[in-house]
Structure formats: C-alpha cells, structure tokens
Specification:
Largest sheet of chain A: 7 strands, antiparallel
Distance between the termini of chain A: 54 Å
Largest interface: A-B, 47 and 47 residues
Oligomer: homodimer
Number of domains of chain A: 3
Strand content of chain A: 15-25%
Number of helices of chain A: 8
C-alpha cells in the first residue's frame, strides 16, 4: 500500500521541509491559535503542487469527493476527526442528512458517498441520503461496484426544516458544490446546521477571495518561519468582470499573465531555478467553463481557449491567473500531485493524483488520471524527527499536511469574508 | 501485525456485541453528552476481561505506561487525540514537561516514555523530561534499546511554577502514579496545568470510588441499551478500614466475598453458565501490597495471603472484593486480555496482555506476561456493520473501546467526586 514514490527534490524544498520539521511545535501552536479565532471548513481537499523548489496549493475543494481514494488504514483518523467536529457543532446530534451531487452517478462517486456515510456512521450518527434529483420520488436503491447499496430518498421540506420521511436531522451535510445555484429546498434552513454553508457553493464562491486569503496567510506563516512566502504561495493575478468577447478583455488577462510571469521570472533568477515559467488561467467563479488554459508565453494567449475556460456564452467573467507550479513528483514515471484531505482541523489522509500522459506543468485533474492512496510504512503519517529531510514519505507528508491546513485556514477566512449573514461590528 | 486471535465466544457476548454495533449512534451520542458534563481523564488505560458471556473492566490506570506496546500504525490517532486534548486545555501551549516514574528505569518503560514524548511532540509541543529523582542534579542522558536517547533533567521549582533550566512549561504531564505520596515539588502548582490532577495519584485514589462510579454508569448505559448491567459490570464488595490482624477483619472480607460470589452464582444460573464462580481480593487504596488474592471458595480465605495483598505491616486497610471475570481470549494457546488506551475522550489503541503460564481465571499482569499490539487488517479498528458479530476483530474492538470508554467516564466521575478543590454548591 505504500506508493513507490520517486521524488526529484533539489535544495530549497529540503530546506523548507527541514524548517517545517524543526518548527513543528511553533507551527502546530500557530494553527491552534488560528482555530481559536476561526472556524475550520467542515471538510476540504487541497490540491498541492510540489515543484521541488516550492510547494503550493492550487485548488481548495469545499465539497470534497473521492473519499474512497483515501487508504482504509487512515479511516480511523477520519472517524476521530468527524467525532471532534460533531462534538463541537452539535453534541446532541442523532441524525445526519447527507446530500450528494445529484448529477454524478458514477461508481467512483457513489463509493465516495458510501465512505462518507461510513465515516459519519462510525462517528456515531444515523446517516441517510437525501437527493436533490426531482426525478426520485420514492426511496431508490443503487447498487455499488462492491455489491453494497446506497438508498437515495426524496427530500421532505417542512417549513424551516429539511429531512426525509420519518427522519429529522439536526445537521445537513452537502456534498454537492451547488454550481448551478442554491436549490429552493436548501434555502432558509435556519433551524438546522447546514454544512458547508451555502455561500461555499460554486455559484457564489470566488477563487480570488480564496487566494487573497491564502496570500495573507502565507505571508503570516512565512514570517513565523522566517522564510520567503513565495516558497509556499502561487503568485496570482485577478481579472475581474472582464468581457472576453472584446479585445480589451483578452488584453487585460494578458497583462495579468505578463505580470505574474515577470514575478516568477525574478524569483527563478533569485533562486537560480532553470525552469521556464508558465501561468495557468482558470475561471475564478463558476461560469460553466471547466477548462484551464496553460500559458508559456502570454503572447500565445488564445482568446477562444480563454472563452472556453470561462464558459461558453458567458458574459462578463472573473478569471484567476495563477503562477504555474510544476509538479516534480513521479510515480512509476507518471506525473503525480498530492491531494490532502481534512475534516475539521485535522488532516485525515490523502492520495496522489497521477496522470501518465501529462507533463509536469500540466493539469492532472483530467480524464485519464488515477488515484493512489497516500499510505505509509509503519509509523503512519508521522514525521520522524531523526530522519534526513526528504528521505522518508512520512516527513514529506507532514509538510503536505501543513500546506493543506494553511489552505484550509484560507478557506475559513474566505468563508468569513463572504458570509452574507456575518454581523458587522463598527 | 494482526494478532492471531482465537476467541471462545458463546451466545451472550455475541448478543452484547450485536447490540452495541446496532446501537452505535446512540452509544456515541451518549458519550458525547457525558463529555459535555464531565472532563475526560487526560489519558488512561483500561484492563478488560472478556468472559465470552460478559465483558468487564477490572482495572483503570490513570498514569498509563506501555505506550510502546501500541501499534505504530495507530500512532496518528494518538497524536490527533493529543492535539484535541491540548487545544481544549491550553491552546497557547508551547512547552510540555513530562515527569516519568523515577523508580522505573527498565528499557520497556523508557521506550514508553519515548513514545509519549513523540506523541506530544508531533501534536505540536516542545517536550522535555523532568525527573523526581533527587540523585539527578544535572541533565543526564539514558540510552534506549533502539539506540535513541532520553535526557532527564532536574526539576526547578520557582515559587508557584515548576520547570527545568530555561524551560517554563504551561502544562505538566505526570506519568508516575505517586504511590508514595505527592512530592513537595509538585504541591501548590496553581499557575500551571498539572495533569492528571494530584488526587488521581495512588496515594489518594481508591478503587472503591472508581468501581462505585463504574457501577452507576454501567446501570445508566445498560438502560440505554436495554440490557442487564451485569453483562458489563464486575460485581464487587467493599471492605473499608479493616484490620487484617484481627479475625473480625478477615471475617469481614470473607462475608463480602460470600456475598459477591452468591450474586455471581445466581447470575450464572440465570444465564445457564456452567462455570465455577471466583472472586479476587485486592487493595482498594495503595498500601504497599501488590498481590491479588484469587478465591474460589471463601472458606479457603488465607489471612496471610490477604495481609500480603494489603501490604506488609499495614494497619487498617481498604480492600476491593471483585467478581472474578475469566478471560476466554487466547493467542497461540496462551490466555490473553485486552487493554484499551485512551487519550482524552478518544480510543487510541490497545494490546493484548498474554500470559502463557496463567489460567483463564488468573491475573495476567504478572512477571512473564507479554504484550501483543492490537493491530488490524485494512479497515482499521472500524466495525463493519455488515459483518457477522464476533466474526471480525474490528467488531470486537468497537465493543472493547466502548467498555474502555465507559471506565474512563467512571474515572472522570471518580476524580470529580474526590477533587479536594471541588466547589460545593448547596
């Protein structure tokens, strides 16, 4: 179960790793203090890119899937974290209503839903599945690849509460990103805990808020460790409210890409990194587009590809221009990037997303990608203080867990900043 | 790493296990509500006896050793639990002072101390070892069997605070049971968190308080599950303040043993158990005695052995007369009993105490006992709802974890009841 992991790590990342291992008590205390002031996302998954010379999060998913790709050995950690989360949110909880993505009926996704149900059942809740699919009007069983079965039930809204027939949950857990907006049935549920909150949905969320929060945190965190924040932060530029049908809109994106890449070039020079910088452009908010444009030279910027990334037919859109962070991890010659999972403030596992046909500077979350659980030799995911940095997977995972958690604190800041019901003191 | 575990389970324990698995959400909620009202012991280890027809705790250690016998795969669980515990007690914590038992320098114990340091280091604290040994006047390194090293430092008391040279901890963790009383240096530390509290020490603690609290809890818990509390509770009798030098004192013990065994006989009859009842007599408070007297017939009661159990030269003593619970678990033909470890409110692992030369009705914590980590096939210690009860180790461990936690709630009640600084409302 231990992935055969070939890393091509050079100087700086080892220094970074060394620094994190040495600063473990300071780092853990820093997180504890952050979590005193801020509420962690109920769960999240963070995509990391490990370039050898830097390690950075590139995506933070607040409705994570693929729980089935976490190794079974780590499941007790997820259960324990879920217990801690429930205890904090609603210790009297009996029933949890899980609402999966109605649009995804792939076996992979159903196995992930099954795993989530298992985690919360073991944590001590009666878990049932409600579906947003209006076509399901009676309890419907779906068979899983492992022979198990999931039972989807139609939602039942009664005034301020949402439940199922004979099932009144105190907590509702969403596992659908609400990209198409918030369904009526989920609105105005003030009597129950709705997790994550509706403004974490993709119809509302903006990656610009997230990476702004992450930038702020990376600076604070880097200060704590006495290091350059760039080593853990992907530079980015904002293109808000641009019209890609106009040349001026495309030009605005090009200008941001130029600025991002100029900064990367300076940093590469500063650190003596012989790499060709690149940038990626993606929709900052949900606009129907899912493609990601990789730019090696801003002059090459293809307006059509950009419109595709932003979503066909979209009017004004917001785009995130992000520093391209190559990934230099390899598994059996295929390019790999780590994905770290958290429940509440705890790292509960992770996996490598591996793509045999993609390059180190390409996006791996594409058809053809595979998932290899991050499992560990005896010793679990614990860093071993005596080990040479970079020498052991456990050491590496501590660093991944730190950056994953940093992104999860950023998500917490993001959700606070965008909370439509936040009280304003002033 | 999975112990080859041969159990000789008959009807009732399977029913009990089945009931616990089915009632998991209710059980977990019950624990959550208990922990809302009561503070869990910082850590504890509970010895269980699995008789097939019943499962009961027979000892609850509030300064647990043998952390090195927990399987490494489960260490992340211990770290996560430690993180949760620290966050609750003192989120700003930087430094933890660990005070081990000065009388134990065995390699086994030192490895356990090393493991404890590792757990709390990974949880994000600077951990250093202070010693109560007055002979150690300067930092002293001790080499471990694995080549590692522990560094013991002399304690430094400054007015209300205890620390080491250049080390001011906010939390002090005791791993010595204080059987010889509370050293001056530990008294009056009101500015720091001292865990466990001093009244958990063996010079103060009484098993009678513990089992009284456990009896109360076993009744509540059995009511929740609609079952006979005897199935999870070892019957007991109290002999307080008896003088074993007098015939009347010995007679008082015999009377309690008679009463305990008469009850066991009735229960055995009720459940159709063809076993010969027995009782064990042990010191309820620390009195220098460590032996345990096993009684198959109260008439056989040996006053000399009893005095040995109570401690040579003791004056008036308190004894616990406990229902003997045979253990019917076997590992490679040797008698085994499970020991469950908790940190804060979480089960973090366990092992089997195995003794090749002892019988099912004998005490296994004796010279010659061995320790086999409770490790698990993929799936961790998670019960699998679909599995036939008794068919899989994971299912068994859930039940062990439930009874272990029940004893830890009892320890919490016990410590509240005996807290010398508790506020009295009235």
């Amino acid at each position: 179960m231990v992935p055969h992991l070939v890393t091509a790590l050079t100087g700086p990342i080892n220094e970074l790793e060394q620094r994190m291992l040495e600063s473990m008590p300071a780092i853990e205390r820093w997180f504890r203090l952050e979590w005193m002031e801020h509420t962690p996302p109920f769960y999240c998954a963070v995509d990391l890119r490990n370039a050898g010379f830097k390690l950075a999060p590139v995506d933070t998913e607040l409705f994570p899937r693929r729980f089935n790709n976490l190794t079974l050995e780590m499941l007790p950690l997820a259960v324990q974290a879920a217990m801690a989360a429930i205890e904090k949110i609603c210790p009297e909880a009996k029933n949890l209503l899980l609402i999966p993505d109605p649009a995804d009926r792939s076996p992979f996704y159903l196995l992930s839903v099954q795993r989530l149900m298992q985690i919360f059942h073991q944590a001590g809740l009666n878990v049932r599945l409600g579906t947003l699919d209006p076509a399901i009007k009676a309890p419907t069983a779906v068979t899983l690849p492992d022979g198990g079965e999931l039972r989807f039930e139609p939602l039942k809204r009664q005034r301020g509460r949402l439940g199922l027939k004979d099932f009144d949950p105190c907590t509702i857990l969403l596992n659908t990103d609400l990209a198409d907006g918030v369904p009526q049935v989920l609105q105005g549920l003030y009597e129950q805990y709705l997790l994550p909150p509706l403004h974490a949905g993709w119809s509302v969320r903006s990656m610009l808020h997230h990476f702004q929060a992450y930038e702020e945190l990376a600076k604070k965190f880097a200060k704590l460790l006495g290091m350059d924040p760039w080593l853990i932060h992907p530079g980015y530029g904002r293109c808000e409210n641009v019209d890609l049908a106009q040349a001026a809109g495309v030009e605005a994106v090009r200008a941001q890409a130029d600025a991002v890449m100029a900064k990367v070039r300076r940093k590469y020079k500063e650190y003596g990194i012989r790499e060709r910088p690149f940038a990626v452009v993606k929709a900052a908010t949900f606009s129907g587009g899912k493609a990601i444009v990789t730019l090696r030279d801003p002059k090459e910027l293809d307006a059509a590809a950009l419109r595709d990334a932003a979503g066909a037919g979209a009017g004004r859109v917001s785009l995130l221009v992000q520093e391209g962070v190559p990934t230099y991890e390899r598994m059996n010659d295929a390019v790999a990037e780590p994905v770290v999972y958290m429940i509440d403030r705890y790292v509960v596992g992770g996996f490598y997303r591996v793509h045999a046909e993609r390059g180190a500077d390409e996006v791996l979350s594409a058809p053809g990608s595979k998932y290899v659980p991050l499992a560990f030799a005896p010793g679990g995911q614990l860093p071993r203080p005596g080990d040479k940095p970079g020498a052991s997977a456990p050491n590496r995972f501590y660093m991944y867990g730190v950056i994953g958690r940093l992104a999860s604190v950023a998500a917490s800041y993001e959700l606070e900043a965008t909370d439509p019901e936040a009280e304003v003191y002033g």
